[in-house]
Amino acid sequence: MAVNTFNPIRNIVETMNLTPHPDKEMIKLSIGDPTIFGNLPLPEVCNSSLIDGIEKQKHNGYGPSVGHEKPREAIAAHVSTPTSKVEAKDVVLASGCSGALDLCISCLADSGDNILVPRPGFSLYQTLAESLGIEVRHYDLLPERSWEIDISHMESLIDERTRAVITCNPSNPCGSVYSKQHLTRLLDMLERHMVPVIADEIYEHFVFSGQTYYPLASLSQNVPILSCGGLTKRYLVPGWRLGWIVINDRNGAFADVRGGLIKLSQRLVGPNTLVQAAVPDILTKTPEDFYQSTLAYIENNAKMFYSHLSKVPGLKPVMPQGAMYMMVGVDMKHFPNFKSDVDFTERLVSEQSVFCLPASCFEYPNYFRIVLTVPTEKVNEASVRITEFCKDHYCEKNGVDANHNLTNGVKGRNGVNGHNGIEEINGK
Fold first, then answer.
1. Which of these, 65, 100, 251, 347, has the minimum number of CB atoms within 10 Å of its CB?
2. Residues 274 and 225 both lie in one domain
3. Are residues 380 and 255 in the same domain?
4. What's the predicted TM-score (pTM) here?
């Protein structure tokens, strides 16, 4: 299992030469951790509830492997909708949403089976599955449709050994938020093929103005869904490592899966009990204006980045609808000095001290991802530096580089180069 464990982000980033320009302060737009800059305060109830638990000294021991009853009741109430009601017995707690995803993948598929994951998508899905010998098949997202799922492509990947589809809505790395109509089409197709879903919903309700978040389970009576969430993003406490699985199963299709999740939870004897004790207050007492101010801040940053980068020749940002990320396309034929998006972002660090994550990390070359949680003044400064960098290297005519495999590849749907050369970039 250890030999088979491979993290594309770590593999790429740890082999990059990230030496900032000595005269420019480093601006990190690469890590999806909203606490790094200290500009987004967490809700006061998070602090007070945790401190209260410490002072009472009633939450220092082991808990049930699936988590204590009260936090599971609170989570069930938090995620239930009129069409998808769940109870505490339907909730399994985990060490962060990553831990929840690990339990779901481990429970649903065996070595030799396959699961379907988005491209571009969070690389941990692939890391967890392939470590267990599970085949990963990537279904495409469509940048020209705000990163909607290519449902026809997804359907073409399904066979008799497909055990689950993983969805991410709102999306990391794309910042997409799927419409009710789009999700309903997806569920209709999966119902025909009798394929269940692992729904990564860690960014639930994390949507910008004019958008609506629909929990996947609220839209289907027949497709069994394991919904994964947590405190990490909405409450800005990623280090607290409290995640959950919600078992949405109207018709008993997940009877064995339910038992399997309980058994697998016993391997680690449950997540942090102090944080568990704080969950009910956090979910019920966080004021609405906290969410609104956080979202407004991040959406404003997104609009600023989009306004700046849309004007830069050779770049094509895709305006996000939620979460905390933006994907930016790079028309590599106009940047012949660089052989890949990895090379492009590496040089952006050395020349401008701006670090963006190359989208090869997400199986989607010729893009980079920027994080939107940075202080607003850094948005302006980073935009100026990226603009200057592109101006220095942009060539109006198509560049020719014999070593640049991607420029000779098949064009993607949005005119940016396609996926040819991805194996070489990732060192596979």
1. 251
2. yes
3. no
4. 0.90
